[in-house]
Specification:
By secondary structure, this protein is α/β, with parallel strands linked by helices. It folds into two domains: 123 residues, 3-Layer(aba) Sandwich (Rossmann fold), CATH 3.40.50.2300; 155 residues, CBS-domain (Roll). It is 40% helix and 21% strand. The protein contains 13 helices and 14 strands. The strands form four sheets. It has a five-stranded parallel β-sheet with strand order 2-1-3-4-5, with helices on both faces. A four-stranded mixed β-sheet has the order 7-14-13-12. The longest helix has 16 residues. It is elongated. The two termini are 34 Å apart.
Length: 300
């Protein structure tokens, strides 16, 4: 056994299946594929931990497959995928025993988090409690990290890759993290560099310096701004990350409640928190992770 969560992805669209396999495998899952209901039932012999099942399929649809899974392996958590406008069908699936449902297009981080939640529920099948930070964070191995002695040019390239390497179809997508964690030689997190920090870096200091009021009309003229952006970006390229990075994000325990995370973000105007457990960095919880959880609560 690899120790990875084994996911059975059931969908009749070949491109979606393959793209989803790549995304989930990259996030640390072991992904099995099935093109239809009959193949999905046969794949149960491979002992998946969680099933992700499309509702709309030709022949044996998701509802029929769900019912058969419930008969063969009643403890198996099943996450249903449904299109917009199929809310009634999704709620029917919940009544039939589905663990939860997600609408397409589906954010990859949300899908991964839901799979982990379903897996944990299978191990401890008691009434669901409100999730803790650990249940919605982005694991550290999935976050972009760079050494503090690298340059801003290197950081920008790494951040670009966090976006450009994301896979997408019309029904599943991934988004970059908008920031990069900075580590020291011992792999400890010592700072963070976000896109907003890069924008701050290219601002000429004299723009915020005291000036006569009559200078405003010159400063904000079209001619004044010409070429400034390109020049500033090129000048900051060789700066060392350690010299310009922002401090380490506020820390929060992995076992903390989501309201505590929301409070810290609100109070300190923070867009992300570093998640720790026993002094070890576990991941990052971002404002969008809390947003996705808000959306889920309102539709259940």
């Amino acid at each position: 056994m690899s120790g990875k969560i084994r996911v059975l992805m059931v969908d009749d669209e070949a491109q979606f299946r393959e793209t989803t396999r790549k995304i989930l495998n990259k996030k640390g899952f072991d992904t099995l594929l099935a093109a239809d209901g009959r193949e999905a039932l046969a794949q149960l012999d491979a002992n998946p931990d969680v099933v992700v099942l499309d509702i709309r399929m030709p022949g044996m649809d998701g509802h029929a497959v769900l019912q058969e899974i419930g008969r063969l392996q009643p403890e198996m958590p099943v996450i249903m995928l449904t299109g917009h406008g199929d809310l009634g069908s999704a709620r029917q699936a919940l009544a039939e025993g589905a663990f939860d449902y997600l609408s397409k297009p589906c954010d990859a981080d949300v899908l991964a988090g839901k799979i982990r939640e379903a897996f944990e529920h299978r191990k401890r099948p008691f009434p669901a409690e409100e999730k803790r930070v650990l249940g919605v964070m982005v694991p550290i191995q999935e976050y972009t990290v760079i050494d503090r002695n690298r340059t801003i040019g290197d950081a920008i390239a790494h951040l670009r890759d966090s976006f450009s390497q994301q896979a997408a179809t019309s029904r599943i997508l991934e988004t970059g993290h908008r920031s990069i964690l900075v580590k020291d030689a011992a792999a400890g997190i010592v700072g963070v560099l976000a896109i907003i920090d890069l924008l701050t870096l290219i601002m000429p200091r004299y723009l915020s310096a005291p000036k006569p009021s009559m200078a405003d009309s010159i400063q904000y003229s079209p001619l004044f701004w010409q070429g400034m952006f390109t020049k500033a970006v090129k000048e900051m390229r060789t700066l060392i990350i350690e010299d310009v990075m922002a401090p380490v994000p506020l820390r929060i325990e992995a076992t903390a409640s989501l309201m505590e995370a929301a409070y810290l973000m609100h109070r300190h105007k923070a867009r992300r928190l570093l998640v720790v457990l026993g002094g070890k960095t576990m991941g990052v919880i971002r404002e969008q992770d809390l947003f996705f959880e808000m959306e889920k609560i309102l539709r259940t």
